[in-house]
């Protein structure tokens, strides 16, 4: 097991009707900036519940935070916080709204251009307090200290982590999952599966207990998927789905392990070049990483196949092949097209992506084992 | 899934050599009370490592905290903190030292008799900051806000929880496990198994993901046990053991589930009356709870048998019987005698315990389903 340092102070307030707890968690008299996105909260009743819970508070609303939250939008919110001496920010939305809010919260006290956080020119500033009411399970941003921010004007997109930038609390009411469109559910399932995989499917067994927990999340997703894709989802399925999403990227399965993240890095390029949904890119790339890196990840692939898919028969090579096929089949079963050609993407795109990684001299994956040559093999395997 | 509220702000600093991090986590110039127990830290090198890391700090030592920490000892430490205006307390030891330190930390600012916390006469006072260097994995006190305090003078023993009483940080160096005597390892394995069981083996399936995580801890313990009972334990086994202990009772597997705890309550009586080790009592009582409560816990017993022990053949009744036998066998395999008669305990003790529960009108277990009549059946089954 690797040495590690774990801390996650976010309070998770989970369950039906918990949005009403807002008034118990935020001190009376506080000035609040309420951030949200494109307006889904007006349709699913969350806006009304939040406003009711915050009756009597001084609330400034800031809507319109985009999917892939944009720097130019967020700096406007920073200015509003400063002008109005906002005490805390309440993000009401999905991962993008929470990510954007993390940037706003860190920017308020920073004397300079907060873009510098993202490009490593300045250490991230201590954030003003912020919290969230989550409406879309997937990213676990509601219980971690990371965020991804885009800048459309310069076509840039970067992640940052803020050591003290965890939400003070996050309210997760699983009934928000009832009304999510199937496309968001499919994307979410693959995204959570991939988050877990990136922290699990590495070159060695670091810790038995974290492996079991990661496998537990994968097994749960496999079990939940058919229920979640029905028109009429049960509360318990929605609750387990929401909890699994949060546990997938809040650090709880990352103790003492190496992490890969090459699938995400390659997937980001596919999104940048072709506008594919994030989840779609992961469903394409992951089986390729499994296939091309099978020698390095052999031990974990065999364990994964046996424990998540019950694969015990055949030679080691056959079992690995079977584990990859099962994973691909699973992604397809939730509605994903898992081949580049199915999205009209061919060799030209592969060349562009591989050249980018070569130019940046980026070796991906745990210990840099996913070299640009490997990226090329991975993408070719997915044509 | 039940609604729940989860929060655990403790920083976990885990791994070989991490005791040296003390000087990075504690501000220079702070006055520290260092608490410890009977002196095992002088033998395993932990005392020297802590003192080296705290070179240059103003440290007052307070040793002699007993297994089952005693009120009369702890109030002396509270007085020392007040007299010396101690800024923080550093517990160096096992669960008893950490538990005792929680009581001291909460007592310092309390204007009255802190025993009142334990008997519910006063709300627990905000604790002064405290942290721990753990030397014995088992109780997870290093990452939760609960403690059990005894008062030998009045033969009383109570638990308390302090909402804001989590350790600021806990340092877990798995090399401390190398030198633990087998008896402590056996007790620890059963204790951690039982902690997990109490949060898992209940009357219904509340959440798939928490079930998977609880099963993951149980599977890990079953896998680790033979390695841990060897004279020469591997670092990775010690590390997984230590991490499993912490994850077993830090709230991470308790989200949205009912909890039982009847085995612990019955076990405490056996310790009080016959001085049996805590782990020994759990190994005796748990198979009895499984057997007598098999109707109520049917669904979970079948799931447990299949997932932890691979029991898939036979009728439901046979599979449950087999799951109970496997559990009993496992406890015996780590060196436990699992029958009352093997400890020279007979019907008289059962009568005393059952009468105590009847007098107190205590119904144990989730939803009070373990009535005094059931306790009687459970203990008779374990003769």
Automatic annotation (TrEMBL), chains A, B:
Gene3D superfamilies per record: 3.40.50.1970, Dehydroquinate synthase-like - alpha domain (1.20.1090.10)
Keyword entries, A-Z: Oxidoreductase
Tagged with keyword Oxidoreductase: yes
Record-linked InterPro entries: ADH_Fe/GldA, ADH_Fe_C, ADH_Fe_CS, BDH-like
Domain Alcohol dehydrogenase iron-type/glycerol dehydrogenase GldA span(s) in chain numbering: 9-174
Positions of the Fe-containing alcohol dehydrogenase-like C-terminal domain: 188-381
GO-annotated cellular components: cytosol
Pfam families found in the cross-reference section: ADH_Fe_C (PF25137), Fe-ADH (PF00465)
Gene Ontology MF terms: alcohol dehydrogenase (NADP+) activity; butanol dehydrogenase (NAD+) activity; metal ion binding; methylglyoxal reductase (NADPH) (acetol producing) activity
Family: Belongs to the iron-containing alcohol dehydrogenase family.
Full protein name: Iron-containing alcohol dehydrogenase
Species of origin: Candidatus Merdivivens pullicola
